[in-house]
Every structure is written in structure tokens, then in C-alpha cells.
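Step 1: inspect the first sequence and its C-alpha cells.
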Amino acid sequence: MTQTLAPSSHEDSFTRDRLPPADQWPEFVFDRPELQYPAQLNCVQALLDAHVANGQGHRMALRGADATGPVAWTYAQLQAKVNQIAHVLVTDMGLKSGQRLLLRGGNSPTMAACFLAALKAGLVVVPTMPLLRASELKQILDKAHVSAALCDSLLAEELGHCIDASHAHFANSLKQVLWFRSAEVDGVEARMALHSMQFEAHATSRDDVCLIAFTSGTTGQPKGTMHFHRDILAMCDLFPRHILKMTEDDVVCGTPPIAFTFGLGGLLAFPLRYGACAVLLEKYTPESLMKALDHYGATQCYTAPTMYRQMALLKNEQPHAFKLNTLKHTVSAGEALPDATRQLWKKATGLEMTDGIGGTEVIHIYISSAGAEVRAGSIGKVVPGYQAQIVDEDMKPVAPGVVGRLAVRGPTGCRYLDDPRQKDYVKDGWNLPGDTFVMDADGYFSYQARNDDMIISAGYNIAGPEVESALMQHVAVAECGVVGAADPERGQVVMAFVVLKPNLVGSPALEKEIQEFVKQTIAPFKYPRRVVFCDALPRTETGKLQRFKLRQQAPAFNSEK
């Protein structure tokens, strides 16, 4: 497969040199008018500069808070700060286009400005989750050959280990670090004050890498997915445009870190693309998130199913404490949305959840439906601009109603940084996200499980998320995770890890009650033959359930039976 790329403007050719072999790329599809981008493209010009140039600099761009209190920046103010930080990167730090810059911080306006400044300067941003430890940061620094970093002073400790030559996780490539939200005379803010509020965007190519988004998978070995400047705009020009009908009047709020592509899109790139306003929260609880939604008049919320469930329960307990009357779209992604959570949210708020499936490799959501287009039990239809099909093990399309592997392609797709796993993710020009799906005759896609979450017990295929959805309907269950456990007679049996609601205690009687409940809710052969009561489930920083950790624990609990 031949890939024709616009010539690179990068002085440092590291990322262009480490793109996957051309025959391992997915087929990219640019068949819509909104996806026709010029060869010379710096995405920050479209996300930020264009609004100021068009006389919209007075509109509110970012709201949030920092150590000094509330923050509210217009597009013109954000542009000025971005330009000053870009000068710090290029002039003070001496960074050249194409070099990688590690970014480390929570969802603060300053973190967002640093992100945009790096892209505007032609650098390649390597964002990292706030909770990563030095050992994890070192893997990323080494793999991406990162020489410089901007880091929130509140997160200094772990990255500090990586620049300490005596520490076990010293990263030799990292030569300089500047701290932001710092009172230091050498901090980012102090340096910004010495620079002009004007900065000409580096003339990057639409096919220059601007983002390396890392994802660990189940092995713990990080995979860096490389995205181009046009990929940032493509994710903005499809899902929010066609599914959410986004406009400049929207106000978005939520929880995913902007270091995570779900958060980068929903909480930064989407609103900026449409001239809307983003509210960035660093610390939140279900209660504080709902208060923020009311306070800022949010029209869109982005978070994970677990948070929606907790908010719905709180709304039912305190119906008059939260209005939520400005919300139009509540977007769920990151993990499977149980139908019980969808219905609980709808009952509490009157809002139909907008479910979606996307991924770091394809950068954002490619299957979703909203409002009247929602169909029970389904995530939705393919987002305009993407193509999807269900295939068998030989990559042959299967008939509607037949379970198989999801294959997707469109204007974005997987390009791992120098990684042999590229050939596993892309087959015959299609991205294979690793999900088992079924598509009906009307083109609605229904999630079954991750490919490795499908449990085969006594010849039956059992989707773990379906069992989880049934469990969540039991009055005693607060959270749950379902995996397969090895069994000599059945091959595997269904094992459920269950977190009970407050003040409830697990017992053999409750285990039997829950098992009988599942038998009455879905096909009896799908019930969990083992129920493990636990205090908490392992989750990622973005709230995604880590089923692989439950699978690692399963043998110990299974041996107790």
C-alpha cells in the first residue's frame, strides 16, 4: 500500500523516520469535503489563531482554576499565552521542530496552553497521565527519545527522578525540564513575561507528527501512537460535527485527562475548533462535577460510565441539589456502557446518553449515535467519515447478526512508533481495535467484549460485559467486573468481582441470590459460577476497568472453591 505524504518541515526527522512500513498502514479515507486539508497545516492556527483573526478573540475559550483562584481566558488571552510559551520553547530552550516535548500536568488552563504552544512551535507533544510513576515515565522518555519537558510543579517528584543521574529510573535523553505553575524565577511563567505575545506558527505539514499518544495495553509495554496535524482536525470535524452538532455556544466539561485522547478531543480540541468554551477541572467528585456543570452552564459532559452512575445515584438522592438543565449531550466512552447505567442516568436526568467507541490508535470516537438515533443495546452507527465492518478470523465480512471482530478505517488510524505490534493492529488496510461486535441489518453496532474478554465455557461464548450489565441491575451491586477463570471441566467459568453498596457485607447467601438474579435476567448458562466480593476494582487513571488484572487474580480465588 503506497502512502503519499506531504513533505515534512521538521528539522528533527525522528518521527518521520520511525513511521511503520508503508505496507503495514491502514487505508486512509478522505472522501468528505470537510476532510480536505492543505498540504501546509499547523492545527493550532485552525483551533486558535483563526478565531482571533475572525474577530472572535473576545469569546471565552478556557475556564478553570489554578493556585491563585478562578481562571477565565478569552481566545485572545489564550493566544497570547500560547505565543509566549512557544517563545520559551524555541528561544529559551532552543528546541527545533520535530523534537519531542514531554508534557506533564493535570487538566489546567496552563497545561492546555503548553500543549497548544508546543504544537504551534512545530514540536511533537508526548503527554503523560498525572499518576504515572518514574519507571513508567522512563519507558516513554526512552522510547520517544524525549530531550525536554514542561511539568506542573505539583507533579515534580516522579519526573525529578528521571533527571537524577543516581536514580534507577534516570532517563539519559532528558536534558532539560521547566516547571509551570511555579514561583521559581526560572519557571515557565517567569520566562513567559520576558517574551512577545506574537509568534508565527511553524509551517508544519499536514502529515507531520504532532502527537505521540502512549497506551500500555495488557503487557505493560507502552505503545506510542503517532498522529499528524491533520488527525487533530479530522477528529474535530467528524464526531462533534455530525453526532453532537457542536457550535460556538457550547460549554464543555468533564473528567478525562487531556493527556488521554478522549479528553484531548472532548475537553480541548473540539471546543476550540468550534469557537466554544472548555471548562478544565483538576480535582472532582461526582458532587463537584455536577456542581461545575450547573455553575458553568455546561452543554456537554465527557466522562466514564462509572462516574455517570455515581452522579445518577446522587441526583436521585438529592433531586433538588443539582439542576443539570443546560446539558444537551453527555458523552460516555473509555469502557463499555452498561444499559443499567444508561437507564439510571436517563431516569435521573431525562437525558439519553451518547455512547461511543474510539481508541488511542484511531485518536477518537468512530461509532456513536445521539438523541433520537440511539437504539437500546447498541453503541450506534458509524460516524460519517469512517467505515466499519464485522469480520471473521480470515478478515472476511460476516452477515448481520453474526458476532465477529470489529474492523474500522477512516481519516485517522494506527501508526505505532517503531513497534512490531503494528502488524497485529492493522490487517488488510483495516484497524482492528481488538473488540468483538455484532452489527444488525440497520447498521447499528453492539459491543460484545474485548476479544480477550470473551469467555468460552462448555462451548458457549459468553461476553463478560453482558454479565456485568445484568449484575449491575441487582440492588446490592455498586460495581463489578467479569472475567473467565480456568476450569478443568468447562474450559472456563464466569467469575464476577463485585463491589457492594455501602453498609452491605458479602456472604454465601448473597452470592447465591446474585447468581439466581443473573439467571433470571440473561441466559442461565451465563451466570457467574464464582462471585468474589471485594472493596474496589482495579481501574486506570481514566476510570477504565482493568480486566487483565482481574484475570491475573482469578486463579487464586478459583482455587478456593
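Step 2: inspect the second sequence and its C-alpha cells, then contrast the two.
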Amino acid sequence: MPRLRSLDKRLPLAWLLGIPATYLAASFMENFYAPALQVALWAILIHSLVTLFCAYLLDGLAREIRANRANALLTAILFTALAAIVPASYYLAKPFPNLFDAQAFHLAPAARVPFFAALIPAFPAAMVATTVARNKNWKESRIHKFIEENFDGLLVALLFFCVYLLFASVFNRPTFDEDDIFFDADGRLYRWRFATENVRDYYWRPAHPFILIVIRPLVAILAFIFNGDALFAAFTLNALTAALCVFLIWIFVKGSVGIPLYAALISALFGASATQFVFGSVMESYIHLSAVALAFLVLLLKEKPLWLQIIAGLTAFGITISNVAQTFIAHFFVRRNLKQLIAYGLIVAALSVPLTLLNNVVYPESQPYFWDLSLLEGEGHNQFPATLQRAEYLARVMTLHSFVAPEPLTIDDEFKFTKVWMFRASIKRDPMRLANYETALGDGLALVWAGLLLLGGVLFLKNFRKWDNGFSLAFIAALLFYFLLHLRYGKDVFLYSANWTYAIVLFLALAWRELAEKRWFQILLLVFILLLIVNNMSLLETMMRVVAPTVNLPKWK
């Protein structure tokens, strides 16, 4: 979309427009680099990049207006709405000072003068960057081409990252010193294992054979940026991974359908889903699995070599054993090459053993080996009878609640915290429970979403012989796999929604492709996304409101 040319005349406006974003970013970095000089240096770096980014955006918008005014208008509305979520999230969390430290996003009085002084040299720095960007060698570089081709997707992902990160700092506070508070997630366990020296899985499960050598090095890299703060690095990695999922949705849809505005709408729809808002914020393993599954699909779409697929498959296996099944399903339906599939499986199986051993060498006694099957018996407390009622509730969570958030269950069972769940299996004598829609907005969005799902199913069947349906069949098979798995496994099945939300979105994106350029359909998706954001952010507000009375810590660190 945008091109790096004729940016000079827009630099002053871009410099001015970028100040609020730079202020928030510099204020945030002040939490890790308090001296005023360090704040000023961060401000110069950040504002130079923000100015260049805004100029790039203005140039692209001007070009889009000249090429297609309707597309430009819809794109501008979408990005304006997504940008507005960032301050809206701030004001949504601000009434809960024991959960959210608003001062973390404001400069200390002593740093304000150095900050505003630093904005001045940021302008010539952006001019230098513009000159470099015009260089022929830079324009022919892979980085420039990548940004050029994927700017819209990167912007959608960046805006959602800011939202996920803000709420990650709320819902992963050390004061939440128990698991199962939010949707049965093991928040404390993964906060400990990823960000502290307490690497042992105290549930002693073999299902995550080498998750630590996958995640902890990434946390360490981010901790270096945050001046050694590993806890916040872990928050950031969770939000970054969720944003990466949004970007990979963009890559897949643009690569398979070829319409940038449609790809932006689908990636925004995915980013605003209940699944992404919750698990982009609440620390767990499942958002990382979603990213790996999407990366594997992109590798298949772009026909990348087998060794890259093997890396993705090993990563999925290392994080959670069962999720390697997604890669086999996708490979089978898309490649349709049995010999290659067998080779893929044998190599992944062979390499998984030394990687598991390596994990336990680097992190001794962190978890049992995955080949010790006797330990799987410990998962019995998460297994339940497969009943018709559970099947109905599971289907509703998968197809509706994963996208349009209902009013969640609040569970008070003599636990330290009031729990916020979507679904609760029948435990002991307690009946099975499911969250319901209790507002006109929620009911309306759920009905519209059900209609969009039905439309996708009809179009898929109508055009079944028209297109290559390898990916669509893979998505259906993955959904069936997780439906059968969680028909018996899981106390709150919403916990696993990151395993199927991407598959439903991509199935629909392919099914709707004949409508992708229809203006009425683009407007329908845009309006639905805007209302979905409002509805699903109310879920985050409910989560904060429910747990706030039991939390007593004034600062997020």
C-alpha cells in the first residue's frame, strides 16, 4: 500500500501527530529507565521512528485516496477505531487502581522537560531516516519490501499489541498467587516458569516436554530491553505472540485471497475476538500454540521447505504434545503427499527426544519426560463424561463465545479469588454451567455472528468444486479433533479456544472470498468489528470488576 517517497512535506504533521504515542511509550520505558537522560534518549529514538511511521502512513493514505476513495475511507475508519482502543483501554482500567497503575503511563515531573526537549532532535533524525529510506539499495532490500507489502497488517497487529500489553500488566500481577482464576488458566504457574527461577511444573505433567527452551530464551531477550525485568518481559512476550497471531492471519488471508482491505478486516475481526482479548492478556501456553499453528499454515501456503515445517512442528510438540496434531492435519489436507507426511512425522518424533533431554539438562527437574505415560493418569481430574449437554455447551463455546463474549460466570467457592469462567464442567455435585448473553448488544452480535457462520457454510458448499479446498478441509478436521478431545477433557473449555478460533476465522475468510470485494459486505464486517470491540472489552471490564475487591497491591511491579 504505502511507499516511502514524497514524505518530506508530511514530516512536520507526522512529527506533531506522533507526540501522544511517543509520550505514552517513553513514559512506559521510564518504569525501567528512570534517569531523565535515559528518558530523553528513549524519546529521541521512539519519536524518530514514530514520526517516520506517521509520515509513511499519511503518504499511504493519500495514495489510497487517489486510487480508491471508498477503500481509503473504510481503511481510515478501521484504523481510527483500532487506535481509539488504546486510550479506551487505559480509561477502562483506570478505575481499578489496585489492578492498574495509571502513573506507569505518565512521566515523572523531573523527566518532562528532558522529554519535550528530546522531541526537537527527533525531527532531523526522522529526516535522515527518510533520506535513507529513499536510497535505491534500501528500497530493494527484503525488509523494505516486507514493510511495503504488509504495512496494513503490521499496523493492525501493532494496535492490538498495545491493548493486549496493557491488560497483560493487569491480569498477570504477582498478587494473583493462585491458578484457575481466569477461565481455569494456570496464570501463576506460567508466570513463575517463564519469568522466575521457579521453573518446576508443580503439577508434574509430561504434556509440555520442552516448553521452557522455547519460551524462556525469548523472555530473556525482552528482559534485556526492559533493563532486566523478566516479569514484564513475560507479559510483553504474551502480548507480542497474540499480535503475531493477528499479523499471521493478515499474511494468510492476503496471500490466499489477495485483497488488502479484506485481509485487514479479517485480521481485525480475529484480533477483537474474545479469545484474543483474553489470552493475549492472560498468560498461558495456548496463545503460543495458536501462533505456531498459524505459522505452519503460512509455511504451507507459501510452499516453504520441509525443514521449516519441522521446526514449527517441533515447537508445537514442545509446548503441548497434543497440538502437533494440527500440523499433521494441515499437512495431510494441503500437501496430500503421504511420503512427505511420513518423513515429517519421523523427523519430528526423532528430534523431540533429544530436545526433551536438552530441556531437562538446561532446567533440571522442570517437568517429567513425555514418554512416562503413567503420569497422564494425573489428568483424570480434568476428564468428564461425554454427554449431549456437554457437546451442546462445547459447540456454543467454540462457535459463539470464542468470538462474541457473553456475560461470564462468576464462581465463589471458598477460593481465595472470585473466579471468572465461561464454562464449568459438572464437578462433584455442582451442575454444568455455561455463560449466557445478557445484553441487547451481546444477543444481537451473537445472532449476526451465527448468520455469518451460516453464510460461510453455505458458500463453502456452494463453491466446493470451484476452489482447492485443502486448507478449508484442514480447518474442519482441526475443529472436529478439538471438539472430540474436549468433549471429555477440560473444566472450562474456553481455556483452549486459541486452538480453534484461528481455524474458524480462516475457514470463513476463504468461504466468504467471493464477497470480499463487495462493498456492502466490507461495511457489514467493519460495523460488526466495531461493535464486537465494544462488547468484548466489556468482558475485560467485568474481569477487573469481579477480582478487584480481592486484590490489595497498589503497584503493578
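Step 3: confirm your contrast with the notes below.
The two ends are 40 Å apart (CA to CA). The longest helix spans residues 36-67.
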